Amino acid sequence: MRGNKKERAENRVILLLSGAALIWCILFLSVPLLLNGNDSQRTAGAVLKLFFKPVCHQIPGRCLEIGGAAMAVCGRCAGIYMGFAAGLAFYPLLKKKLSGYGPRLLAAAAVAPACLEAVSDKILGVDAGNWTRFSTGLWLGGFLAWVLAPAVLDAIKDFKKHEAAI
Fold first, then answer.
1. What digits encode the pLDDT tens for the residues 33-73?
2. Closest CA relative to residue 33, chosen from 51, 49, 18, 22
3. d(CA 81, CA 22)
4. Cβ(110)–Cβ(80) under 8 Å?
5. pTM higher than 0.90, yes or no?
6. Which uninterrupted H or E stretch holds 140?
7. Is residue 86 within 8 Å of residue 149, measured between CB atoms?
8. Once rounded to an integer, what is the mean pLDDT over residues 69-93?
9. Residue 166 burial (CB count, 10 A)
10. Is the dihedral angle over the CA atoms 102, 104, 108, 111 positive or is it negative?
């Protein structure tokens, strides 16, 4: 394993977060598959869909479908979650290349496409479609990972400093 002890510890934290994000994605992606299954699978799919209700509006026309059944989250949310998982997975490999950019610049780059899509929809009345929402969400989620990963690592570092001082 390359890197010093600190880098390896940070990579383990990012790997843990990536795993949690991947499990989250698997859960919402499994809903349409379960809804197309037998009775017990449909029940599990319905329960999982309810689980995701607090984090997404689940408007049927805004949800991507697999096998004719809607995902548990809309296209934009699916993109955000999948982009976040991918951004975390690539964070250890690319963090040095993006470290020169501040979080504000990354945040602006992240939200710009989603804002343009939303403005075109609300003001111009141009519905870009679910795959565009998914794509802008994917972009946004990837950048969110790049902003939040260092914040989580800093919070852990601060916690350890505080714990050592006690």
1. 999 999 999 999 999 999 999 999 999 899 999 999 999 99
2. 49
3. 9
4. no
5. no
6. helix 130-165
7. no
8. 95
9. 4
10. positive
- 70 close to 64: Cβ distance less than 8 angstroms: yes
Q: Judge residue 13's burial from the number of C-beta atoms within 10 Å of its C-beta, 0-12 exposed, 13-18 middle, 19 or more buried.
A: middle
Place of tokens 């949800």: 63
Q: What pLDDT does residue 109 have? A: 84
Radius of gyration (C-alpha) of the chain in whole angstroms: 19
The residue with tokens 């111009």 is 124
Largest CA distance in the chain: 58
- Please report, as a single letter, which amino acid is at residue 136: T
Give per-residue pLDDT as tens, 89-98.
Answer: 999 888 877 7
Tokens linked to 144: 């969110």
- Residue whose structure tokens are 């799919």: 45
Q: Name the residue type at position 43.
A: T
